[in-house]
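Quick one, probably user error.
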């Protein structure tokens, strides 16, 4: 039987701090507003893939095929956390590398892989 999935602590804003952040937003945030809880740093998907390959220690060659690239794709997408910082004083505390490592290790454990 698969064990229950635990949410990524990075998504929750770091455990207890995530609860505090939610409370601060409830008290200080504007009703109906959207707040991005994100690093605010642009990251290419190819770089995320490269990090995952390194974490998994697998020998993969990553190549981009220009024929598969679409002109309508947005070249860069990232969140702006200025509003949540201003409303709550929140700042990111986890690196992308740490989050990816945690997710990878949890996926291995969920699959029963030592």
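Nope, works fine. Designed sequence:
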């Amino acid at each position: 039987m698969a064990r229950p999935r635990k949410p990524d602590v990075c998504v929750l804003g770091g455990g207890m701090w995530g609860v505090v952040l939610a409370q601060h937003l409830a008290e200080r945030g504007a009703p109906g507003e959207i707040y991005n809880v994100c690093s605010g740093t642009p990251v290419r998907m190819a770089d995320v893939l490269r990090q995952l390959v390194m974490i998994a220690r697998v020998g993969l060659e990553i190549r981009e095929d220009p024929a598969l690239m679409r002109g309508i794709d947005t070249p860069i997408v990232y969140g702006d956390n200025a509003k949540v910082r201003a409303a709550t004083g929140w700042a990111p505390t986890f690196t992308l590398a740490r989050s990816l490592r945690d997710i990878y290790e949890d996926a291995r454990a969920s699959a029963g892989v030592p």
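The first helix runs from residue 16 to 28.
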